[in-house]
Amino acid sequence: MRKRPYAPINNEISIMVIDDEQGIIDSVSALLQRNGYASKGFINPMDGLEELSQSHYDLLILDYFMEPLHGDAVVEMIRKTNKELYILLLTGHKDLAPPLSTIKALDIQAYCEKSDRLDQLLLLVESGIKSIGQMRTIQKFRDGLNSILGAVPKIYQLQPIGNILEEILRQILPLVNSKDAFILIDDLAESGNANKSIFRGIGAYHVPINRFTEMLDPIMMENIGFARTNGKRVEMENGTIFPLENEYLNSIGVLYVEGQHSTEGTQLLALYANQAASSINNAFLHSLVNIKNDELNQTYAQLKTRYMDTIEVLRLAVDAKDVYTRGHSDRVAYYATKLGRALSLTGTDLENLRIAGYFHDIGKIGTSDDILLKSDTLEHGEYEEIKKHPLKGAHILSAVSMFQDVVPLVRQHHERIDGEGYPDGLKGDQINYLARIISIADAFDAMTSDRHYRSQLSLQAAIRQLEQGAGTQFDAEMVRVFLKMLQADEDLKKNVTAPDFLR
């Protein structure tokens, strides 16, 4: 008869067997080993008690009638110092079992009759192991929550915001046995809405700002933005991003902790993230930012410059993918700012149009070249993939607060006045005013440029397309102003038809 193969030994569970019959110990040990559990057996209960006093065990299988001590006496001695050990009592016959009152008083979790069939014993052992696992989870939560509560006085102390952030990171890592983490938050000190961000890292992320931005690949940037935009944690292959929100559920930043975390570990981190957000918000609300203003401004400037550099690299990478669209984002920025001026916009609005024009297609960084460079009609699935780029781009720019005014423009530049656009199906005035400008600039440059799937349209054909789309795809008044501007600006018309215009 073919023997059943032994299961791999589970070294996380330690089991002891005490019985004054060696045959019983051998039978139980063999049963446990076949099912993946190692055990240690003792004939003399005093020897077992000595071992328990020196080493940790999770489960004890104990005979009731033994010499020189009965099982209940052994349990009574154990419970004086060990309340956690799971005890399964073996009896020769149910009539010889200790009374229920004794079982309850000594906190004996189960008992089982001895027999030739060990199925019942195995079921009780498996049940005990599940209970042990649950108790470990409860203990981990209890320890973690105690750690969080113990950290509250430290992170609420009147101290510089940089110190608070570092204290949060130091407190959080032991909860999940991680070494690497970072916090990226907004500066809320200026009217609660400053377009500035602060970074602090620990472990692998305890690096200068320029090194930190180099560590942010497009997927990480997109996921940071997703967590901030949606208020949901993002579990990545190598770590988890937790959104930080104030009491009004407005995003103030993110916390990233590297490593694979258990369910309970992730839940503890989520609890701690909430506490951290409250502490950070409290610090700003009470004007406790004791870092010198010039030091903070230098930090903001460095992060802004380095993140802008990173975004620019991604933008150029998108342009470099396709010779036909090279220079497209520069031209969209050019047309958008020209139209913005014609609409009497100034200052910040024009700057946001320029930046949005440069970065409106940055979400295509993760799109397959097979789709971007396809000359045939896109299949449904391919088109759906292309339609994701406004949302991806918005998430990448949402990672830091300095782009918060540009994000809606990038997200909405493919929305239509009639509500048939994407990704959100907005219509009319629901679409950001500046996004409607980007939409016209983007479409006009696409019409007047060569593409894989068609040659460029003539200037007159492009004008007809804009006129036909006015009121459905495009804002009708903006189309009117754009076409009037185009007719009046001879240099602009020359630029449109120039083969080397921003290419």
For the largest beta-sheet, the strand count, sense and barrel status come to: 5 strands, parallel
Strand content range: 5-15%
- Structure summary, number of beta strands: 10
What name does the CATH topology of the largest domain carry?
Hypothetical protein af1432
- Overall number of domains: 3
Query: Helical proportion?
Result: 40-55%
Q: Can you count the helices?
A: 20
Q: End-to-end distance, in Å?
A: 79 Å
Please tell me the CATH architecture of the largest domain by its name.
Orthogonal Bundle
Pairing-aware structural class of the strands and helices?
alpha/beta
- How would you state the average pLDDT, rounded? 81
Output the CATH class name of the largest domain: Mainly Alpha
Order of helices and strands: EHEHEHEHEHHEEHHEEEHHHHHHHHHHHH
Strand ordering within the main sheet: 2-1-3-4-5
Q: Tell me the radius of gyration.
A: 33 Å
Overall 3D shape: elongated
List segments where confidence is low: pLDDT < 50 over at least 5 consecutive residues: 287-292
